[in-house]
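Mods, move this if it's the wrong board.
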Amino acid sequence: MSLLNKLLEVVRSYYEQVKPIEDRFKRMSTFELLVGTIISQNTNWRNVERAMANLRDRGLLSPEGVLRANPRELEKALRVAGLYRVKAARIREIAERIVSSGLSLDDVLRLRWSEARAKLMELPAVGYKTADILLAFKAGAPVIPVDTHIARVSKRLGLVERGAGYEEVRAVLESAVPPNERNLFHLALIRFGREVCKAKNPSCDVCPLRDLCPSSTSKP
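Not the wrong board. Structure tokens:
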């Protein structure tokens, strides 16, 4: 079995654990998911959920609600997620762009994938990953968003070169993962990266890929 196929086999064992997250993402409005993705940078999902609850309680999960609020109120709601001033400024800037231009995120997601992606990336602080998350979970696009955990695991396993960029990692993973599994694969590989193939002190001794992984420090 190839390393890529073995990775898919291992990651599938996490699907049941992450299915509730996929369902939650699909229930969110597009703006909510966009905000949640921005909040998730450099923090864990528990803090994201706490910050999202704070925003929901204050009516700050719509562009109009964000703009009506005092900027300090937005910062206070986001404090639990870290880097709250930066994240508050980004969310407010996005809200301003959406309201001032009359942009409908849902209308954008009805465009062709490449056109929708480019349009989303015109928004402040929206790069490949954030755009692809919206496309994957709100538009059903068969794309695997690549975050830092996914990129790290792919490079450690030697699936791509150490210097590979976002699009190269995405293309390699999508070559092995069936389109109907890509949302779950994305979420499950992130969990694998957080729990096993960690950034610091990876758990190579318990990793089911250690016999195939060129970076493993614990060969059986």
